[in-house]
């Protein structure tokens, strides 16, 4: 049935997968296996469509509690090289993530008007915990990309789950904060009357309210605006989610822009996995650059995940004050996430 070399590669692949190696289960000769969890949702659907265009993805797996078979069927008509499969319900979550290189978690409820992020965490925390547990069992070497809110608490929670299963690697767990960068680039580009693609600005901290810190002093090209204008723009970036919820009259949150941002992050991550040089991209990861043990800063990537954390950019006086406040808020969110797992023991 097999030639000698082909048989060896086949057996090696199956050995790695069946023994749940901490190394990626794909063969270097092949492109990547990517799973989108929550694929029939408002973020998951457009994100999955964007993923179909990526020539580096060979196997795209979609999972959700319902409706995902139709999404997979729809995407299977797209003229793209990736194969696509839909898997549904809790009984198929392990199958969906098995031997994946990257798992993107978008599953969970969207925040509704008046809902605090703590209330959102009570619901989404359990959803993400189940997914991360499946990853720990079936794909311990995967890059875990968390989109589900509240990111500030969900990511530390996920780290604790992976630690319990003794497969945690801080270089492979990410909270996506790219939407804050995307918003900053768009709003500044509009103000300067230039393309957002020409704007470079680090957005550090977390992914909620005043934990989002656009470092305007490091914006390129420089933002020559009044302090009042800069402060107004910072608030708009920090409250971008509320702006969209209001515009959608409480019937939805940021979905299309979030899908765009998540795809941008995964694209950079896949470049790193391929061994290509990557642009810097901010993400919420385990960190020692501040007193908050999870913090978003500019990162570069390689085959192991994070190649280098580039740390804090230079901050002006007002940014240093904002940083102190953000760190205190982040520490509370991190504690919330960690305690959620400890209480489940």
Automatic annotation (TrEMBL):
The keyword Hydrolase does not apply. Gene3D superfamilies: Lactate dehydrogenase/glycoside hydrolase, family 4, C-terminal (3.90.110.10), NAD(P)-binding Rossmann-like Domain (3.40.50.720). It is an enzyme of class 1 (oxidoreductase). Residues 33-175 form the Lactate/malate dehydrogenase N-terminal domain. NAD(+) binds at residues 38-44, 64, 124, 147-149, 258. It catalyses: (S)-malate + NAD(+) = oxaloacetate + NADH + H(+). GO terms for biological process: malate metabolic process; tricarboxylic acid cycle. InterPro entries: L-lactate/malate_DH, Lactate/malate_DH_C, Lactate/malate_DH_N, Lactate_DH/Glyco_Ohase_4_C, Malate_DH_AS, Malate_DH_type1, NAD(P)-bd_dom_sf. Its EC number is 1.1.1.37. Keywords: NAD, Oxidoreductase, Tricarboxylic acid cycle. GO terms for molecular function: L-malate dehydrogenase (NAD+) activity. The active site is at residue 207. Residues 177-339 form the Lactate/malate dehydrogenase C-terminal domain. The keyword Cell membrane does not apply. Substrate binds at residues 111, 117, 149, 183. GO terms for cellular component: mitochondrion. Homodimer. Belongs to the LDH/MDH superfamily. MDH type 1 family. This is Malate dehydrogenase. It comes from Drosophila mojavensis (Fruit fly).
């Amino acid at each position: 049935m097999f030639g000698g070399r082909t048989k060896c590669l086949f057996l090696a692949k199956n050995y790695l997968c069946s023994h749940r190696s901490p190394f990626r289960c794909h063969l270097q000769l092949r492109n990547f296996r990517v799973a989108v969890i929550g694929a029939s949702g408002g973020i998951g659907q457009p994100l999955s469509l964007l993923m179909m265009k990526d020539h580096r993805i060979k196997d795209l797996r979609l999972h959700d509690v319902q409706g995902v078979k139709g999404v997979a069927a729809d995407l299977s008509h797209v003229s793209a090289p990736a194969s696509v499969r839909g898997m549904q319900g809790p009984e198929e979550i392990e199958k969906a993530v098995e031997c994946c290189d990257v798992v993107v978690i978008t599953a969970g409820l969207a925040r509704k008007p008046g809902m605090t992020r703590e209330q959102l965490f009570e619901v989404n925390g359990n959803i993400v915990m189940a997914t991360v547990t499946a990853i720990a069992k079936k794909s311990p070497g995967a890059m875990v990309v968390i989109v589900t809110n509240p990111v500030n608490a969900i990511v530390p929670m996920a780290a604790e789950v992976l630690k319990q299963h003794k497969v945690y690697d801080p270089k492979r767990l990410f909270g996506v904060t790219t939407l804050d960068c995307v918003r900053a680039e768009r709003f500044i580009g509009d103000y300067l009357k230039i393309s957002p693609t020409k704007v470079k600005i680090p957005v550090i901290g977390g992914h909620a309210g005043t934990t989002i810190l656009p470092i305007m002093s490091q914006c390129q090209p420089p933002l020559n605006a009044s302090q009042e204008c800069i402060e107004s723009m910072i608030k708009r970036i920090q409250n971008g989610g509320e702006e969209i919820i209001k515009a959608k009259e409480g019937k939805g949150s940021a979905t299309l822009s979030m899908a765009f941002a998540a795809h941008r992050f995964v694209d950079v991550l896949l470049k790193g996995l391929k061994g290509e040089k990557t642009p810097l991209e901010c993400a919420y990861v385990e960190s020692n650059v501040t007193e908050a043990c999870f913090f978003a800063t500019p990162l570069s990537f390689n085959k192991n995940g994070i190649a280098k954390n580039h740390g804090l950019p230079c901050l002006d006086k007002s940014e240093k004050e904002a940083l102190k406040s953000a760190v205190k808020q982040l520490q509370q969110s991190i504690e919330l996430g960690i305690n959620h797992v400890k209480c489940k023991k």
